[in-house]
Amino acid sequence: GGGLTIHVLQQGQYVTLNHSPTFANLPLTQLPDFLQQSNQIGEAQMLKAFRAWVRKQVQP
To answer: Per the confidence metrics, is the pTM higher than 0.85?
Structure first.
């Protein structure tokens, strides 16, 4: 199993973070779970689930 590593450039150096400052409302570390689902349920169904998840995350 792979994971997701987020690197951010700070003061000329890349540092590893567990969240994305660009997508602060999205727990991007869950992305590998969706990619793994693609193998089980197919790409189209995974994308549908991913879009629903994103909508749920960004709702006020």
So the answer is: no
Does residue 49 lie in a domain region? yes
Query: Which are the contacts of 30, defined by CB distance < 8 A and separation ≥ 6?
Result: 53
- The beta strands (E) that lie in the chain are given as 6-10, 13-17
How does pLDDT run across 38-48, given as a tens digit for each residue? Answer: 888 999 999 99
For residue 6, what are the β-bridge partners?
17
Q: What's the domain count of the chain?
A: 1
Tell me, yes or no, whether 19 lies in a domain. Answer: no
Q: Which domain does 44 fall in, by range?
A: 25-60
Measured distance CA(55)–CA(26) in Å, rounded: 10
